[in-house]
UniProtKB/TrEMBL annotation, chain A:
Protein name: Peptide/nickel transport system permease protein
Assigned protein family: Belongs to the binding-protein-dependent transport system permease family.
PROSITE patterns: ABC_TM1
Keywords for this protein: Cell membrane, Membrane, Transmembrane, Transmembrane helix, Transport
Any single Gene Ontology cellular-component annotation: plasma membrane
Biological processes per GO annotation: transmembrane transport
Leader peptide range in chain numbering: none
Domain ABC transmembrane type-1: 78-267
From TrEMBL, chain B:
Organism (species): Sanguibacter gelidistatuariae
Domain named ABC transmembrane type-1: residues: 100-301
Protein known as: Peptide/nickel transport system permease protein
CDD domains with a match to the protein in the record: TM_PBP2 (cd06261)
Record localization: Cell membrane
Similarity section: Belongs to the binding-protein-dependent transport system permease family.
Automatic annotation (TrEMBL), chain C:
PROSITE patterns (alphabetical): ABC_TRANSPORTER_1, ABC_TRANSPORTER_2
Keywords per UniProt: ATP-binding, Nucleotide-binding, Transport
UniProt similarity note: Belongs to the ABC transporter superfamily.
A molecular-function term among this protein's GO annotations: ATP hydrolysis activity
Matches recorded under Gene3D superfamilies: P-loop containing nucleotide triphosphate hydrolases (3.40.50.300)
Pfam families, sorted: ABC_tran, oligo_HPY
The name this protein goes by in its record: Peptide/nickel transport system ATP-binding protein
Organism: Sanguibacter gelidistatuariae
GO biological process: peptide transport; transmembrane transport
Boundaries of every ABC transporter domain copy: 9-257, 277-515
CDD domains assigned: ABC_NikE_OppD_transporters
Amino acid sequence: MTATTTRPARLRALGVTGAFALVFILLMVVAAVWPTLFAPGDPDAIDPRAAFTAPGLAHWFGTDESGRDVFTRVVHGTRQSLGIGAAATAIGVGLALVIGLLAGLGPRRLDAALSRVIEVLFALPSLVLALLLVAVMGKGVTPTLIAVGLATAPGYARILRSQVRSVAGSAYVEAARLEGQPALLVFGRHVAPNTLWPLVAIATLGVGQAIVWVSALSFLGLGALPPSPEWGAMVNGGRVYLVRAWWLTLAPGLAITLTAAALTVLGRRLGRVAAA
Amino acid sequence: MSIFRWAAGRLGAAALVAWVVTTVVFFALRAAGGDPTEAILGGPGSQAGEDAVAQARSDYGLDRPLIVQYLVQMRRILTFQLGDSYARKQPVAELIGAQLGSTMLLAVCALALAWVIALSVATLATRAQGVLGRVVSGLVQAGEVTATVMPHFWLGAVLILVFSSTLGWFPATSVGASPAGLVLPVVTLAIPTAGFLGQVMRDGLDEAAASPFATTARARGASESRILWRHSLRHAALPAISLSGWSFGSLLSGAVVVESLFGRPGLGRLLLDATSTRDVPVVVGSVLVVALTYTVVTTMADGVERLVDPRPRGADRATDRTLRAEAAIV
Amino acid sequence: MSIDETLALDIRGLRVSFAGVGEVLRGVDLTVAPGECVAVVGESGSGKSVLVRSVLGLASEGGSTALVSADRFTVGRTDTRRLSARGWRALRGAGVGLVLQDALASLDPLRTIGAEVGETLALRKVPRAQRRERVLRALEAAGLDSPELRFVQRPGQLSGGMRQRALIASALVAAPPLLVLDEPTTALDATVAARVLDTLAALRDAGTALLLISHDLAAVAQIADRVVVLDDGAVVEHGPIARVLMAPEHPTTRRLVDAVPHGPKPGPAPALGPVMLSARGVSRTFPTPGGGHVRAVDNVDLDLRRGEVLGLVGESGSGKTTLARLLLAADLPDAGDITLDGEPWSGATHRGRLGRRHQVQLVPQDPLASFDPRFTAGRILREALARGRSTSSPAELLDAVRLPHSVLGRRPRSLSGGQRQRLAIARALALEPDVLVCDEPVSALDVTVQAEILDLLVGLQRSRALSMVFVSHDLAVVRRVCDTVLVMREGRVVERGPVEEVFAEPQHPFTRELLAARRSAGPALRRA
């Protein structure tokens, strides 16, 4: 790869919005790895006298019913929320890779059978499918993570299969075959890279969606439970005090929305960069 | 393809959904080691004695071999018997039947509202031209992305805060079909779907407006608004219609959250409660109903699509179009 | 300046510029009289498309605002320089009609032909009954059979030629005195194109002014009275078609005239070696959506000798591309046998073919699609070199196809159409093939570029003693390049023989029709 000419071009394809999103996500990753950098306090430190303090200079996002600092909790919740989203996506994409590649490259009958199953599972809304799996596996962080991962797999498998099919049927793959390249080489050099790059973009987007779903399950009381600083659990804990202390709901919800939006924008831009 | 083959295909798909869901749940549940008896006797941590456990096992046929239990389950599904709820000791069909109407009302209203919002925003956004157009387009795009990813539970909470607690316009809890109580849940559900459909429609409008047939129409003297209403809109609506079936599914997902947030009875609440208590017959029944609803709505969307696009179609053009629309969103 | 009422279109000093791009049209003069056909000819990037759109007041269509100025710009009696947006809309359709190139994309696929053709009238509030009457008449005037049936059909249900006629009908339904035609026959088969041009000539003779835009002088020669040559946004030459074709004055015009393929293959007859590629009784059948079957290739025999260039000619759907794919072993025949160098080719095992693939290489119609989008030109060539036995370097290959070495680090997408095709040829040569299969290698290119690529191919074929299969719908191109020719129709070979013999004495009626279509397209070019 000629880095000198392509790297600036790729950065430019990211655009201003994409660059913003990238910086935001990088900050989130830093917060997940090293939360004390942004919020040196203890997310579980109780201070009953300071309960329900409105947002201000002392407490940027206010405090909750036990006087814990909401900003500190949101920052410290990044690791769990982002981590769960990424892990769920990894499960979904991993499973989809197996199914999608088998369907896309396998014999026609296997493709027909797998496609049917994919379509059937796709017919079930992801959250409903996730609830079904939680009902089977029980409540908790790990089951919700696995449930969301499995529930997103059909969607990824569907996209992956059609991507594999279109690449495998493309003129450049045929050109490589007509050059006399063995099938494995064609797969490694042309099919896999041209399939996986778009998948990276889709998976980035998917992490955002997974964060929303996992936090929805936490909100419903099936995943992480208060006092965990997981964002969905925080919204769940704050909803009781919605009128009295709106910031308890607003702050973690905003974190979810902004992270998901940034990941969506970034994913789309990455899709364009992959094409450039 | 004849209408009968098409209908048969749809029915087959629905049956397949039912079979896959029941089978997966049945075996996954047993593999996970969960004992349904626990749920029957009052949920996790029940203190029932051994006699009661044995009685419950024989009552619900849980003492028979696994494969027999599976076949019994399959026969029940085939004859539309969803069994009895473990927790509530009532037939599942009755429970679902009582809750279905409320959820459908919610989802249908939300889908309609989402279409209205998406259509208005998309058509208005294409009106703006030049520098203003670029600004408007940027804002609309940002709004659509944010709306699409916004979690229902948070959006609903914010709406309650603003329109119920602060302004007092609408009640925060809603029971039944009281129009005022329906407003906030419907808006909460509709906004993310509107963002999604709006993106699809705007992409479609832009693509159609830049196509050679739009140039030809301009060359006949057609104004931009005529091109929008007579040409572009039909093209832009097609992928949005195809995706409406899928959107309806995500609305049912959202209904789980929204019903819980607004304290509304419905299928979502039922499913959620059953999930917490691991009341498997109810969960399976609800999931089957959701899948069936999805199939019905997709079929209807397909019918509408055929009205808008009377061209003869290839085997899986609708699937192609859905995928392409999804890819565009991605 | 007074308006000259005898002209359908009168443009003086037309300048069009776009912000960030600069001036695209730099003082164009153009007049068209009623009953006259004026052709505007130029290469890609000469400003033709902008001119077409400017004549309809649609220069700003792409979204970037165009600055248009002219000393005179009248359509019929209307001075368009002071025209409001509303005034332009009234003029379009009634005062000037437009026919674009790709009729499938240029008619709304969701609307019936009746609604599409009648839109101009509907906009002018013509009552429905009267509208139908006029649409049917327009369809008839455009040469469509059974207009009543076409009225209720949709564009997807018509063939390419019928669609083009429907599009013409949609432009002339309100009887505008001026029709602007943007490459109206480029996408059509030669015989169909000739008939569409006949229809246009009839319209011209009935008094309509035609402004015909094309990149190909030969394509406009049949009906144009005058020709205007456009280069880099300016008119470099204009005059009667015969004069411009016979005695071009400007170098650009000369290049365009010379680029039109005409006459027999130059140079000595090739020294033919043994048979390289041989097909016996080859057939290939495909299932059709309705459950039936179509024989794309039906019982074809052919022999290709070393050093021979064999042309496969036919219209779309004649099976020529399918046959080319069979020869490449990109696809296998249902019946019959293909041998390469005397050994089984179609009958060999998959593994057996793999080691010999380098012997037969493809030059595709769409080179861009045939390159991995992530690869640079250099990587594409290195990859091909790794498969073949060649000892040359990527730079040497670029020299052979006359590409600068600077393209090595670039991706094909950033290359021009001609450069991409040269790169595709270089890639094929990297494997040192014995046989080159060229599938319509120049049909997507401008005529001038087309001529360069053809010269390159012939030169390489001679210097390397290659055998070549050359698939084309264009008889003139085939005559320039090939030694022998197979004429295909509906999967069968209807005529075969040395090119010059087939041209001089075509035996099959279909060959005669093909030749007639090509000849009528360029009466002035027959001198060669």
